[in-house]
Amino acid sequence: MTLYENRPKWYKYILGILMPLVMITVLSYVMHNREKIAELNPGKFDKGEGFSIFIDYGIPIMMAVSAFLMIAFTVQMIKNPSIFTISDEGFVYNPAGVSSGLILWSDIIEIRETDVIVKRGNKNTGTEKVFAVILKNPDQYIQQKSAALRPLLRLRLKMSNTPLILNIADLGKNPGDVIAILKKFVPIIPIG
Question: What distance in Å separates the CA atoms of residue 95 and residue 172, rounded to the nearest whole number?
Fold first, then answer.
């Protein structure tokens, strides 16, 4: 039985759909009006080779990437996967579409509240509270992931003693309620 579920709001995907659509529209205009653009900027596009190569090859590639992004965001909006789900068996954490899989309560030793350093802006750094999920067998968890993710998870394991970190912002609008549910199943160790 699902005890808690946090899903992203559909309107958050709209920007991801509209931006590629605008990009495709602008690129299509440039592609089909190359002569007008060359006339508006005399001397800049007279030689023509670089501009022509960009129009013939660069724009179609950028349009294909934009179309792919638009389709990907549309599919994500339709699927609308849960970011964080708690059930009687365990929880599933799915940030940015990369699922943790079902983490059973019996596989968790504890959840520790900790601070991580985050970069804000160009030079500013700060700390942010997260939950480090301490697993009984983190290597088994890492082996279940794709080959591309394994090195990153091993690095995280060396740095924070766990491959699985929960961002408090992903717990929803009322993280205190979610923490209370988690405490029913596993100990949560606060900072200190």
Answer: 12
Q: Quote the pTM value.
A: 0.67
Smallest CA-to-CA distance from 106 within 87, 85, 90 is with: 90
Q: What is the pLDDT of residues 60-78, one digit of tens each?
A: 999 999 999 899 888 877 8
Number of H helices, E strands in the chain: 7, 8
CA pair distance 139, 162, nearest whole angstrom: 10
Residues 85/102, Cβ–Cβ less than 8 Å: no
The pLDDT tens digits of the residues spanning 153-191 come to 899 889 888 899 888 888 888 888 888 999 999 998 887
Tokens for 76?
């994500």
For residue 133, the tally of other CB atoms under 10 A from its CB is 24
Beta strands in 42-107 (DSSP E): 84-87, 90-93, 102-104
Residue 45: count other Cβ atoms within 10 Å of its Cβ.
Answer: 19
Radius of gyration of the chain (CA): 23
Residues 134 and 154: beta-carbon distance below 8 Å: no
Alpha carbons 48 and 71: distance in angstroms, whole number: 33
Tokens of 94: 């799915």
- Those residues with Cβ within 8 angstroms of residue 76's Cβ, 6 or more apart along the chain or in another chain: 13, 16, 97
